[in-house]
Amino acid sequence: KMKTDLCLSSEGTEVILATSSDEKHPPENIIDGNAETFWTTTGMFPQEFVICFHKHVKIEKLIIQSYLVRTLRVEKSTSKEPVGFQQWIEKDLVHTEGQLQNEEITAHDGHATYLRVIIQSAFDHFASVHSISAEGTVVLNSS
Amino acid sequence: MVKLAAKCILAGDPAVGKTALAQIFRSDGAHFQKNYTLTTGVDLVVKTVPVPDTGDSVELFIFDSAGKELFSEMLDKLWESPNVLCLVYDVTNEQSFSNCSKWLEKARAQVPGTSLPGVLVGNKTDLASRRAVDPAQAQAWALGQGLECFETSVKEMENYEAPFRCLATQFLHLYREKVELFQGLV
Ligand SMILES: Nc1nc2c(ncn2[C@@H]2O[C@H](COP(=O)(O)OP(=O)(O)O)[C@@H](O)[C@H]2O)c(=O)[nH]1
Ligand SMILES: [Mg+2]
């Protein structure tokens, strides 16, 4: 099976929920394959968004490009509906003055249909997420 | 159009009118007001403040200590991760004004390395004959600290909205600055 970026809107992936949104910087910017566009939090933490793959995938590596994020938590679900999320990854990021945080996380047990990404805290009043990509394989193309 | 959310903390000596100010701000008949009393003896006033000429708004979450005298541990929890500061003194009480620098320092220590937009509010201007703090002196100090300065009388319902509107505007400006920064990263 070919390894692809599973987190692209062009591949059918969607952001189905985000706790904050500026219509100029919507959460879709996270999965558009372009690090120039971004989603911003709009005040107070935690803030989160949920990614739906519309298929069963196995993630081997997660790459998150962000700015000013301090504590990041990722939960995943293998259900058909966005329920039953389980704790998967928790990371304290370092502040990278003037350049994107580029966090590569090698994942264990990466089976997922949904990801829930939670920004627990930040280095400032606001933080941005520019892109998330997930390297891995499609296990099952549902419907 | 964006709707921001900001945690607003109230600082200042006891009895200067912090609770009165938050309550009058809430009870004003405007839209989207909610009130929650949290079990910890903290009162939370939530109100959306539109920023003039923008279409944007800020939902202020004002955390008040609900009459309880605060000891440092509880205050630390209540003051965790503030976004904006409303610093209040009583214009008839010189001590309450001079203590403002202590309160400001304590508030800023909550967000080291980050700016904390704030207002200085001199309350109880209705007690004109007992005034002990010169408005010009307060203004000068506020200016030096980067705070916007207001005088209010909660009792006479005078000028009580302006400080919160100012906080909303400052917070929106801060947001726009950050977005510009994010835009320049790649
Ligand atoms: N004369 C006058 N009294 C006020 C004003 N605002 C509050 N007070 C009174 O000051 C006292 C302390 O107010 P409170 O809001 O509990 O102060 P806090 O301890 O800072 O929260 C109460 O008796 C209020 O009624 C005002 O604008 N003018
Ligand atoms: Mg009080």
From TrEMBL, chain A:
Domain F5/8 type C: 18-125
Keyword Transferase carried by entry: no
Keyword vocabulary terms for this entry: Calcium, Cell projection, Cilium, Metal-binding
Gene Ontology molecular functions: metal ion binding
SUPFAM superfamilies named among the record's database cross-references: Galactose-binding domain-like (SSF49785)
InterPro entries from the UniProt entry: FA58C, Galactose-bd-like_sf, IFT25
Family membership noted in the UniProt record: Belongs to the IFT25 family.
Assembly mode: Component of the IFT complex B, at least composed of IFT20, IFT22, IFT25, IFT27, IFT46, IFT52, TRAF3IP1/IFT54, IFT57, IFT74, IFT80, IFT81, and IFT88. Interacts with IFT27. Interacts with IFT88.
Biological role stated in the UniProt entry: Component of the IFT complex B required for sonic hedgehog/SHH signaling. May mediate transport of SHH components: required for the export of SMO and PTCH1 receptors out of the cilium and the accumulation of GLI2 at the ciliary tip in response to activation of the SHH pathway, suggesting it is involved in the dynamic transport of SHH signaling molecules within the cilium. Not required for ciliary assembly. Its role in intraflagellar transport is mainly seen in tissues rich in ciliated cells such as kidney and testis. Essential for male fertility, spermiogenesis and sperm flagella formation.
Name under which the protein is recorded: Intraflagellar transport protein 25 homolog
Species per Swiss-Prot/TrEMBL record: Chinchilla lanigera
Automatic annotation (TrEMBL), chain B:
Protein location: Cell projection, Cilium, Flagellum; Cytoplasm
Principal localisation: other
Entry-linked InterPro entries: P-loop_NTPase, Rab_GTPases_membrane_traffic, RabL4_euk, Small_GTP-bd, Small_GTPase
The keyword Protein transport appears for this protein: yes
Keywords assigned by UniProt, alphabetized: Cell projection, Cilium, Cytoplasm, Differentiation, Flagellum, GTP-binding, Nucleotide-binding, Protein transport, Spermatogenesis, Transport
A Pfam family annotated for this UniProt entry: Ras
Gene Ontology MF terms: GTP binding; GTPase activity
Nucleotide-binding in keyword set: yes
CDD domains reported for this sequence: RabL4
GO cellular component, one term: sperm principal piece
Role noted for this protein: Small GTPase-like component of the intraflagellar transport (IFT) complex B that promotes the exit of the BBSome complex from cilia via its interaction with ARL6. Not involved in entry of the BBSome complex into cilium. Prevents aggregation of GTP-free ARL6. Required for hedgehog signaling. Forms a subcomplex within the IFT complex B with IFT25. Its role in intraflagellar transport is mainly seen in tissues rich in ciliated cells such as kidney and testis. Essential for male fertility, spermiogenesis and sperm flagella formation. Plays a role in the early development of the kidney.
The protein's name: Intraflagellar transport protein 27 homolog
Taxonomic lineage from the root: Eukaryota, Metazoa, Chordata, Craniata, Vertebrata
